[in-house]
Amino acid sequence: MTAASSKTPAGWVNPLLDSRDKRLPRIAGPCGVVIFGVTGDLSRKKLMPAIYDLANRGLLPPGFALVGFARRDWADENFAELVHDAVREHARTPFREEVWARLSEGIRFVPGSFDDDASFDDLASVVADLDQQRGTGGNHAFYLAIPPATFPVVLKQLARTGLAERNGDQWRRVVIEKPFGHDLNSACELNEIVNDVFPEESVFRIDHYLGKETVQNILALRFANQLYEPIWNSNYVDHVQITMAEDIGLAGRAGYYDGIGAARDVIQNHLLQLLALTAMEEPLSFSPGSLRGEKIKVLSAVKLAEPLDETTARGQYTAGWQGGTKVVGVLEEKGFHQGSTTETFAAITLHVDTRRWAGVPFFLRTGKRLGRRVTEVAVIFKRAPHLPFETTMTEELGQNALVIRIQPDEGVTIRFGSKVPGTAMEVRDVTMDFRYGTAFTESSPEAYERLLLDVLLGEPSLFPVNAEVELSWAILDPVLEHWAKHDGPEPYAAGTWGPPSADRMIATAGRTWRRP
Ligand code: BG6
What we know:
This protein has about 525 residues and is α/β, with parallel strands linked by helices. It contains 15 helices and 18 strands.
């Protein structure tokens, strides 16, 4: 019996009937990927290299096809050249001529603009030809690596040409990139537009953080061990800090970023997903339904701490020093509007209103041009209820912490007190580290590699459903509305850890930020 035949429509796999070796990655069946937005950064730096890396690892089918669609007067060879250069520059795995030769045979290009019916008719015939000549089997994923404002017209074209329609066992899927709207209303509208053309089970929303090994490891750490669960609650946890700090500025993306800002760009998606994985209850299984069900439950229990002028903070970086280089402030960045009030730093305080987390604040922060690049989830524990030491002996003892380092230096660190060698009883913080780099010989696939493969396999677990997206906006909307009614963001110098209001925010709650 094959894995496919033991699957129920809900995606649940009966472990007793499923005979495949779960340690081996599954290979995608016959299929093709159509990318809209092939000339953009995302395609060049992430998608094309990820497709090559999957091919190189033998995880794509022999008849795989990649179709590019863009407003360029190109033939297939010109597009193949673009893919080749992107792969050479950004692929994770070594370049092998024979892999490239096989992959490039399936590369096609369709020139055209999104509102041009004839171009989409051409696309439909290219796709039909691929099914005949290359054996893609009628299975196609449409990757919208384009601004969300253009989603409706592309989706309409896919519906009009029948490209969104699947016959029999064939599949048609759409992959969309954030931002999924800019507030709750627009997200609901967008979800409606998408679901008008593709049923929810065929929609794959990318939150690339969920494709990261270290993010998936939050689930392994919590649910594969006995050690943490008994203390993973308000009896033992004092608070949680989730930080995504970047040292880069806008990196040429001012056009996208201005008007969006740190909260919409990162908190609404990546950080709330990290919170959900950290705070959710144990799922019944790792089936997509159970996992998403638990995330939806916990996101429904998330509440903003108030009053918002004390429990949130936002900032905008000014000129400063970053790694020994002088850098300009965001208002001087090319493409960023003078006088823009878009924040490049955002911090918020949340509560999770459940028995497990009552009274435990979750502090979330993110920013550009901060002290260094680091993403981590830090679970900070309460102090021991009693210390049978003289105060001087524990002066350098902090709170126990478990820090899940998402990137870089991926791993987990536990901080606890230990006796300093010597005759006196002096206790100081030490750390115990697990590092991916030293513990495993296997290297981690790129997030996009994992996520693209999951799209082709129809494995939806790592893709947020519309309910998660809408709940996340419902959490953030009041903050955005509050900020819109008040003065602009507070300046902070590039290379520092954000505006003073972020320190005040956490100090008001009686805590301090970790300096990762
Ligand atoms: C993206 C944001 O989702 O994540 C960017 O839009 C940010 O602003 C990027 O730079 C960071 O991703 P990573 O994987 O480098 O942490």
